[in-house]
Design brief:
heterodimer; A: mainly alpha; 9 helices; 86% helix; globular; B: alpha/beta; six-stranded mixed sheet; four-stranded antiparallel sheet; 8 helices; 10 strands
Chain lengths: 256, 248
């Protein structure tokens, strides 16, 4: 019994230690974000890396997500003659849920993994030590630009995902299944309001922060060797993806 | 002046520094030799403030670097240059960008002046025609020279060299030592070279210290050490496995 309690206590302490470490990492990044001028060139480079280079994959997955979603929703709505609600259902689902979440998962797979491997390799090849020796703060040079770039890129890509998804739904619903164009878009403007768009943006912003925090943290504290970098990449993608889904549930349940 | 006073450091119970003391005068070139894996690079990282001793003090120009934080640590680090064993060049930047990096980050120099300084430094290192190459496109010797150029560009007053000739053939290794000597004559820095490249390194240093079991066991000029007829030094020089030093 005593050993069981001890094990539980050790586990809880371990979790607290990890959370504290993430918290300190985030606080240090915020300190450097607000206490020194932002490195705009680095931020732009990272927006290209995280955002621009993820655009194609986000648009592609967005279009097909919208298309398949329209097919499934049309099938369900047609059971009770509610086909006219296809447009708003597709739009609300994409703007509030699928756009921010699926785009964040796609960016995590493409850019998050690359981010943690880049920082991890810099760690094991002493490039981060080299920054410190040159009196260049690694948080300011490496971590802050990545976080800012992610916070800028995630909402934009989430919006692209939703727009192209609505267009995909339009192709299937209007061009393939015969829903009228006026109904598809007209009903959409009746049902979707600013609150839904704000929610989608809020989710994307928080996902950007979560993914960049986890990926930068895992890269920064990579253990030595190729195995350490591989482990950091896997953990950063898995933890980021799980946190996206958990945080999505909480933020949705709070705002409803 | 660099002074290490009674420094102790352990990692996971493994005592690496055991009351190590050392003094290096301004402008002196100093070789730190000893068996692999016994804490020479750890000592360098203590001197530059990347690691802190569990006990003891490390003074750089009368400032206790192990107690410095924030801006004070940043200020003192600007006196240092560091040549990493593997170069530690930024692999996403070209040779030119690597060498220009400290100037861009730490000075207000304009691009034309940076370009002039970087190309002058690269010319010294024989890398003028390789400025646009990435580190992955360079040979081991070229990487070391590029790294040396990056370390020298800020004209440091203290230079730390972590095994500058390891992994290089004897000719390239000698050329790196010649470059180091050239830079020392030009800039007059205090230099510490951690190396196994004996006896070749003795030609470019004024003093030698040998480290073993977490302490300095021999310290002096080459002539002084040779005159002491020290068995550890003789064994290290000959590379014999028979003697007072056991391989670990």
């Amino acid at each position: 019994m005593f050993s069981y309690i001890k094990m539980l206590g050790c586990g809880a302490l371990g979790i607290l230690e990890i959370l504290g470490s993430y918290g300190m990492f985030l606080l240090t990044a915020f300190f450097w974000l607000f206490s020194s001028p932002l490195k705009f060139r680095r931020v732009l480079e990272q927006i290209v890396f995280i955002g621009v280079k993820s655009t194609v994959i986000v648009l592609l997955t967005g279009a097909f997500t919208g298309m398949v979603f329209a097919l499934q929703v049309f099938y369900a709505l047609s059971k009770f003659g509610g086909e006219s609600l296809l447009g708003p259902t597709v739009a609300l689902s994409l703007i509030r849920e699928l756009g921010p979440v699926v785009s964040a998962l796609m960016i995590t797979g493409r850019a998050g993994s690359a981010l943690s491997s880049e920082i991890g390799i810099m760690r094991i090849t002493e490039q981060i030590d080299a920054l410190e020796i040159m009196a260049v703060n690694p948080y300011r040079y490496l971590i802050v630009p990545n976080m800012v770039a992610a916070i800028v890129s995630f909402p934009l890509l989430g919006a692209f995902f939703s727009i192209i998804g609505i267009w995909g739904g339009y192709l299937v619903g209007v061009k393939l299944l015969g829903v009228s164009e006026g109904t598809y878009f007209g009903e959409m403007s009746n049902f979707v309001d600013m609150k839904d768009i704000t929610m989608g943006i809020t989710k994307s912003l928080s996902f950007g922060l979560i993914v960049s925090l986890v990926c930068c943290y895992k890269g920064y504290y990579t253990e030595y060797g190729a195995k350490g970098v591989g482990k950091a990449i896997t953990q950063s993608v898995v933890i980021s993806s799980v946190l996206i889904l958990i945080w999505d549930y909480f933020i949705t349940s709070i705002s409803l | 002046m660099i002074t290490v006073r009674d420094a102790y450091k352990s990692f996971n119970g493994n005592q690496v520094l055991k009351g190590l003391s050392l003094e290096i005068r301004d402008g002196e070139m100093f070789a730190l030799i000893g068996r692999s894996g016994l804490g020479k690079s750890v000592l360098l990282k203590h001197i530059i403030g990347l690691m802190r001793p569990d006990k003891g003090e490390i003074f750089v120009d009368d400032q206790n670097i192990s107690s410095l934080r924030g801006k004070q640590l940043v200020a003192i680090r600007q006196k240092f240059g560091y040549l990493f064993q593997e170069g530690a060049l930024f692999d996403s930047l070209t040779v030119f960008e690597n060498v220009a990096f400290p100037l861009r980050e730490k000075t207000a120099m304009k691009d034309p002046e940076i370009k002039e300084r970087v190309f002058a430094e690269l010319e010294q290192m024989g890398l003028k025609n390789d400025a646009q190459k990435y580190p992955a496109e360079l040979s081991g010797g070229m990487r070391k020279r590029a790294s040396l150029a990056r370390a020298m560009i800020m004209q440091p007053s203290i230079m730390l060299f972590d095994e500058p000739t390891t992994g290089l053939d004897p000719i390239i290794g000698q050329s790196i030592l010649n470059y180091i000597q050239l830079c020392h004559r030009r800039l007059g820095f205090t230099g510490i070279i951690v190396t196994h490249d004996v006896p070749r390194v003795f030609s470019i240093v004024q003093k030698i210290a040998m480290m073993d079991a977490g302490r300095i066991i021999i310290n002096g000029t080459y002539d002084e050490i040779v005159s002491q007829n020290n068995p550890e030094f003789k064994q290290f020089l000959s590379g014999s496995i028979e003697g007072p030093l056991h391989y670990v």
